[in-house]
TrEMBL record:
Superkingdom, natural source: Eukaryota
Pfam families referenced in this protein's UniProt entry, alphabetically: LRR_6
Ranges in a coiled coil: none
Record-given protein name: Uncharacterized protein
InterPro entries named among the record's database cross-references: Leu-rich_rpt (IPR001611), LRR_dom_sf (IPR032675), PP1-Reg/Actin-Interact_Protein (IPR051279)
Signal sequence coordinates: none
Length: 288
């Protein structure tokens, strides 16, 4: 049998690589680059529900993609349902970490699952919002136990887990969709974290970013009832107990933990004085 030469993609001339990629769709590239691609921008690409279905299937196996932009793609409730199903699989399980004695990190130690989803200016409606809300009840962090080494320096996030930013503005979402999202926020929160930090530790950013922290619902049809439901959720969507042993020499220039919803954009909806009052009341409870 004649000898066969197998050429690695990494050894091909860069001009040839570009030519190959130019002939492939973004969806094909995503499905094939399961261990490399971290951000995919498909804004205004007319992919529709069928294209979203392909993306959703890829997300069930892709463990590196963290940011997905699919603004203005004629996506309806069916596409939102497929994404929601993928988010129930693309999630974090319990983590037990023992790092080496001398370890230094200048970026994220653990970036797991899709963390940012921009699906604004589509037509997912209340049904799509409901499906995404159901996914948020499952797409969350459970338990993390970490033992860091004696000498450890971090200049960015240690853990970024589960969906943290969801933009579904301009999607014809009304009070029913807001209610479903509110119900999800009562469940989509952090449970238990146990951390032993080393003797000499410096952090210049967040240690943990977990659960949904940014929800953009601007330019929908949410009224006072939807605002009330979201307000009720904010009273429950809070941080649970965290046990942390800080080292003798510790410097932090940012948050140790970023947990629960921190940004809620409801501008240009149909919320009146009553809804605003309910949100204001909730903010008196939803605090550290």
């Amino acid at each position: 049998m004649a000898n066969q030469t197998v050429t690695s993609f990494h050894t091909l001339p860069v001009e040839l690589v570009y030519r190959i990629l130019d002939q492939q769709s973004d969806l094909t590239i995503l499905c094939s680059m399961r261990n490399t691609l971290t951000t995919l921008n498909l804004d205004w690409s007319k992919i529709g529900d069928k294209g979203v279905q392909d993306l959703a299937n890829a997300l069930q196996n892709n463990k590196t993609l963290t940011t997905l932009y699919i603004w203005g793609n004629q996506i309806g409730a069916k596409g939102a349902q497929d994404l929601a199903n993928a988010l129930q699989i693309n999630k974090v399980t319990p983590i037990l970490v023992f790092l080496r004695l001398h370890s230094t990190s200048t970026s994220t130690l653990f970036t797991q699952t899709l963390t940012t989803l921009y699906i604004g200016i589509n037509q997912i409606g209340d049904q799509g919002a409901q499906d995404l809300a159901n996914a948020l009840q499952i797409n969350k962090v459970t338990t993390i136990f970490v033992l860091l080494p004696l000498h450890f320096t971090s200049t960015s996030t240690l853990f970024t887990q589960t969906l943290t930013a969801l933009n579904i503005g301009v999607n014809q979402i009304g009070d029913q969709g807001a209610q479903d999202l509110a119900n999800a926020l009562q469940i989509n929160k952090v449970t238990t974290i146990f951390v032993l930090l080393p003797l000499h530790f410096t952090s210049t950013s967040a240690l943990f970013t977990q659960t949904l922290t940014i929800l953009d619902l601007q330019y929908n049809q949410i009224g006072d009832q939807g605002a009330q439901d979201l307000a009720n959720a904010l009273q429950i969507n809070e941080v649970t107990p965290i046990l942390v042993f800080l080292p003798l020499h510790f410097t932090s220039t940012s948050a140790l933990f970023t947990q629960t919803l921190t940004t809620l954009d409801l501008q240009f909806n149909q919320i009146g004085a009553k809804g605003a009052q309910d949100l204001a009341n909730a903010l008196q409870i939803n605090k550290p």
